[in-house]
Amino acid sequence: MSIMDYTIEGYKNVQAKQYIGIFGNPIKHTLSPVIHDTLSKSLGVDERYIPFHITDNLKAAVESAYDEGILGLNITVPYKQEIMPYLVDIDPAAKAIGAVNTLVRTEVGYMGYNTDMPGLAKAIFSEGMELKDSKVVMLGAGGAARAVAYMCLYYGAKRVYIVNRTFEKAKNIADDMNTEFGKECIIPLSAQDYKSIPEDRYIFIQCTSVGLHNGDGLPLVEDKEFYRMAECGVDLIYNPAKTPFLQLIEEMGGKAFNGLKMLLYQGIMAYELWNQVEISEELANIVYSELKNTVYSK
Ligand code: ATR
Predict the structure, then answer these.
(1) pLDDT, tens digit, for every residue of 229-259?
(2) Are residues 39 and 69 in contact, defined by beta-carbon separation less than 8 angstroms?
(3) What tens digit of pLDDT does each residue of 193-227 get?
(4) Is 183 one of the annotated active-site residues of the chain?
(5) Which of 146, 147, 161, 189 is deepest in the core (most CB within 10 A)?
């Protein structure tokens, strides 16, 4: 089976000198082609980004992609962990996070990276916030939260509270990351213990899936006063543009940012790895406008 047999409607007849793409299931609604095709077009590179719908046999799909010359791949839900055994090497940060979202072609196979983590950091910096010596409250302790916790310690956060519905999951991430960085700065909490977080100014990062769907309320902590401690709030969700969490952050006087810039920068960083180029901020802004038009004009 050729890798091109996995492409979706609308991409079957695409022709280019070079291909990059994404593996996922489902994959129809991915926004990544907007990022990468805008970059290639702007740079005058004959390269197209193809969504591949992988329903089973991930190993065979990776092998086909490599044999057929695919330059690089993004990996999304549900394969960010499952992909790891099929790679020739994995970047240490991706290993510690336990998830790979980017494959880069080498002479012997694909190497795995995680650009979600530096992508979120870049998004945070681009909004004028600092992580160094910061104090952070994270809501959620799933796969995405693991990358966020790593990011906080990697960039020098002073103190991180992870609040989660299931305490054990928050504790696992805290233990793993405290060990990884040889520090004791992450403190896990179950949702009902949120009041033990000392009064201070924090960066709040919303990493649960609550808010994705119409009618969703606040994640975990419903007490409005809690959000007064937020100097700013970042939600990993970008659609809807303003989740109940972000609405409340603003209502309580904090600055609110959704996850669209994280999506932007994780894509740009993958593109830079594949093509060995540096994308200017000016071009990043052009791509960001394209993304906003695509997501929010529907
Ligand atoms: P992802 O890969 O996007 O992080 P995940 O690993 O399934 O997805 O994690 C989902 C996160 O959202 C978890 O923190 C989950 O809490 P639990 O660890 O207790 O399962 C959280 N979450 C999902 N639905 C929730 C809800 N209705 N209320 C509170 N937290 C919820």
Answers:
(1) 999 999 999 999 999 999 999 999 999 999 9
(2) no
(3) 999 999 999 999 999 999 999 889 899 999 999 99
(4) no
(5) 147
